[in-house]
Amino acid sequence: MSTLKLTAEARESTGKGVARKLRQTGRIPAVLYGKGQSGVSLSLDGYELDKLLSTAGARTSVLELEVKGGGKDASKNVLIKEVQKHPFKDLILHMDLLEVAMDQEISVMVPIATIGTAKGVKLEGGILEMKRRELEIVCLPSIIPDSITIDISELEIGDTVHVEEMVAPDGITISYDVNFTILTVVAPAVEVEPEEEVEGEEVEEVEGETPEKEAEAEKAEED
To answer: Which of 7, 42, 121, 141: CA 20 to 30 A from 71?
Structure first.
């Protein structure tokens, strides 16, 4: 896979007003972080960024960031640290990037992917419950996987996969302090049937007469 590239422009001005004006012109405010340095304010082309984020593996791949302006142009290896989106619109509001050294291990979050269909789901109608969607791993930037995969084909109802059971690819360490659950196969929900009516209840309901009705009946007989 070829190296993914992203172009940024250095910016001096910051603040909500500046960020709003950038977005109105199709640019996205961003900050580049790195070890031993404060954040560097940048702006990204919105169209280029949308195209990049639609590429498979972009969020876990090392990007070649070309920064223009700010005294001199520079090229840096970065990872996407965070993408801030509008709460109910498909709009990117801000992005954080992290500069990385290719010869130093880093800690990143990667998605969990499943392979196959669990026996408990396929044959017994069970439900696969994902307790975690991501795992924290430690590795060199050059070998960050797109995902950590789990083969669930042999899982039956009641089976659970814990983090300590995971086997990471060579050069990758899965970080955890507690042996938490990643996924489990649970039994299907049992439908509760409505209770049957006891014979006589309906009759009592119909035949049971109030004092007013009894008086009316007696009067009708007298007539």
So the answer is: 141
